Amino acid sequence: MAIVQASARYRSIDPRLIERVGREALQRYPSLKAAVKATKTALHQMIGAYDGRALPYSQWLEQLRQAPDMAARAAVCRRLMAEHASTRERLPALTDLYPACFGAQPPQRVLDLGCGLNPLAIPWMNLPPHACYIACDIDTALCAFLNAAIPLLGVHGEAGICDLTASLPPVVADVALALKVVPLLEQQRRGAGADLLRAIQAPRLIVSFPTRSLGGRNVGMATTYRGYMTALAAAEGWSPQVIELPNELVFVIDRNV
Ligand SMILES: C[S@@+](CC[C@H](N)C(=O)[O-])C[C@H]1O[C@@H](n2cnc3c(N)ncnc32)[C@H](O)[C@@H]1O
């Protein structure tokens, strides 16, 4: 699948993932041209909000490093989160969201799955000084940036490359975040989102779904995803608490694991 990897749009996607998607397309489509097209379409859906721009990660890192204190770093983080649709939409809710999700005792170990730029919200999470933040995504350039950025935000941690339809970081956490990633996983492999939520090793899950498409239209997404989570929660015996944001439906689930 070198043809696909050569395309600037997919250059920073984990090559193993491109290979898997490409192999599946080659089994389904008789011609190489059709398989390449199908692979690109599937990858485009996977990366969701990313629009293929090469983001200026080294400049961003420099801005974080130059910030004289944590308040200035938080201001940089807020500006950078505006560069990605998922985190941009959440900015107005940032101050209230994490206290509402974490409760009185912020977690010591956080796992952020399909993280995008969300680790830049760490300054709003009120995590304890020795907290550990493990993030993962399929975007290699993003993960390299976050690996350098996370320790600048007052916690330990790292970002690793992981295809969540195939595996999960072998991490036990107090809280796991799966923000706006479950629909993408279900698109990639039916059942992959639910499999992920069941497999996570954390007593508290924070799972969210977009309620507006990227174009801003409301196309019944809230009803669809509420139904999805209600059915899964009933099957698993979970009793989620629901937080409604203007563009996002958030489920806070406490489980015995
Ligand atoms: C809609 S964005 C959400 C980002 C972030 N969680 C947030 O809400 O701000 C979805 C993220 O999931 C990642 N992603 C998509 N498919 C994935 C997969 N199979 N494994 C891991 N990450 C994936 C994308 O690269 C992207 O960063």
Report on this model:
There is one protein chain. By secondary structure, this protein is α/β, with parallel strands linked by helices. It has two domains: 2-46, no CATH class; 57-254, Rossmann fold, CATH 3.40.50. Helix content is 43%, strand content 16%. The protein is built from eleven helices and seven strands. It has helices at residues 2-5, 15-28, 32-46, 57-66, 70-81, 85-90, 94-102, 140-149, 182-188, 192-199, 221-236; strands spanning 109-113, 132-137, 156-161, 175-179, 204-210, 241-245, 248-254. It has a seven-stranded mixed β-sheet with strand order 3-2-1-4-5-7-6. Strand 6 and strand 7 form a beta hairpin. Helix 2 (15-28) packs across helix 3 and helix 4 packs parallel to helix 8 (140-149). Bound molecules: S-adenosylmethionine.
What is the name of the CATH architecture of the largest domain?
3-Layer(aba) Sandwich
Helix/strand structural class: alpha/beta
Number of strands: 7
Q: How large is the radius of gyration?
A: 18 Å
- Give me the CATH superfamily of the largest domain: Vaccinia Virus protein VP39
Strand content: 15-25%
Number of helices: 11
C-alpha termini separation: 40 Å
| CATH class label of the largest domain | Alpha Beta
Ions and ligands: S-adenosylmethionine
Shape: globular
DSSP helix fraction: 40-55%
